[in-house]
Design a protein that fits this description.
It contains eight helices and no strands. The relative contact order is 0.15. The longest helix is centred in the last third of the chain and has 30 residues. With 249 residues, it is an all-alpha fold. The protein has one domain.
Length: 249
């Protein structure tokens, strides 16, 4: 099969951050405003994620629409997983952050032990794709726990959380351009964009009483989903154009 991950460009990172924001606001909207609760929301979104993953795995090449739909659903499920541990099981954010970090490290260790690479430019077998999506799920869960730990437990707040994680991502980007390992910097940036997107989502959607801008989860989710759809349409259109240009005349 062809590589199953889109080309990593600036648009890739913009869509990734927007997806994480939708994961944060979308999960809150379904659980609180729709009234499904954390448990039922997790069941519904997990079912949708399994269906999306099965379709994604059945493709022989990357389909932008389904790839990013899967990412959005992973973001929602990752958020719900952390919220379930924190709110329902009352597990400390320190413990959940450490547990998800350990689970992600174990996934990377198993992936590298079997495939001898963690590069997202070589997701060309079903086994590698399964490793990839498992790692993605744990990056979202870890990012959610770490973001909540920073903004809530450590008291940074949403604005400082956005600034802090934004600075960390900038530092990772600078080390990449200075010659750091591209695989390591990619995964560090991927992990950090999750708490950045979550902090941004909370900053926009939460009420002013809690330090947000009070836009609400509905408005924030709709705006960000609209932008995601537009960017994915652009990427898909450019990909179709490139394939037509490469086709034999």
């Amino acid at each position: 099969m062809l590589n199953k991950v889109p080309e990593v460009t600036a648009i890739f990172w913009v869509i990734k951050i927007l997806s994480t924001t939708v994961g944060e606001t979308g999960a809150d909207y379904l659980a609180v405003h729709v009234g499904l609760g954390a448990g039922l929301t997790a069941i519904c979104t997990s079912s949708l994620l399994v269906a999306a993953l099965l379709f994604q795995l059945s493709r022989r090449a990357c389909v932008p629409w389904f790839y990013w739909l899967t990412v959005v659903l992973v973001s929602v499920v990752g958020t719900q997983l952390t919220d379930l541990l924190t709110d329902k099981l009352e597990i400390s954010l320190y413990i959940s952050t450490a547990a998800f970090a350990g689970a992600l490290a174990a996934t990377f260790a198993a992936w590298h032990g079997v495939e001898r690479t963690l590069s997202i430019h070589s997701i060309v077998t079903t086994r590698r794709e399964l490793f990839y999506w498992t790692a993605i799920l744990f990056t979202f869960a870890l990012g959610t726990a770490a973001g909540d730990l920073a903004t809530e437990a450590l008291g940074l707040g949403f604005q400082l959380g956005v600034a802090a994680f934004g600075m960390l991502i900038t530092a990772v980007m600078m080390t990449y351009y200075m010659g750091a390992n591209p695989v390591l910097t990619f995964w560090l940036a991927y992990i950090l964009t999750r708490p950045l997107g979550a902090s941004l989502g909370d900053l926009l959607s939460q009420s002013r009483e809690y330090g947000g801008l009070g836009l609400g989860t509905i408005q924030t989710s709709i705006v960000f989903l609209t932008v995601i759809v537009g960017l994915v349409a652009w990427v898909a259109f450019e990909g179709d154009g490139a394939r037509r240009a490469d086709a034999p005349q």
